[in-house]
Design brief:
This protein is α+β, with helices and mostly antiparallel strands. The chain is built from 5 helices and 8 strands. The strands form 2 sheets. Strands 1-2-5-4-3 form a 5-stranded antiparallel sheet. It is elongated and about 50 Å long. The chain starts with a strand and ends with a strand. It comes from Sphingomonas mollis. Belongs to the NifU family.
Amino acid sequence: MLIETETTPNPATLKFLPGRMVMEAGTRDFATPEEAEQSPLAEALFGLGDVTGVFFGRDFVSVTAGPGAEWRDLKPDVLSILLDHFTAQMPLFRAASAGFSVPPADDVLTDDPADAEIVAQIRELIETRVRPAVANDGGDIVYRGFDKGKVYLQLQGACAGCPSSSATLKNGIEQLLRHYVPEVIEVRAV
């Protein structure tokens, strides 16, 4: 089995492509070792000590190294864990935690029903134009709300903490949404 690696715009994160589906539907972001306990793979990656984030996409796993960690030292260990996991066809999640994608966030806004058409346009643009591009960079973006012209989005995986994430939000996503949905005046990360 060959696992390809790709760099991401976030220098702390590498994208690993095992050549097979990782998640059939949705995505899953692990930001702490405690969250990773739901997945034997994520738990093993956090167990390396230098890993501060794991993200499962459709056909990739993004791994974020902690401050001071060097990818030249960490990459062989990550590849070994991924190779063992996928070769043995081990489950991605423990049985009690399977069947979920992105967990609900406490900071999700309740959209005004009067904005339903605007929200539908925003969600469609995010699903069809933004998420595929962000996935190419080893991450994901999740809609969290619309209020008074402001769109709230959550960046995950390689995109969370990426030095270019604010430029992506302002110069890419905000311009796209403002072009197609004139009611949008700003995009903010939550």
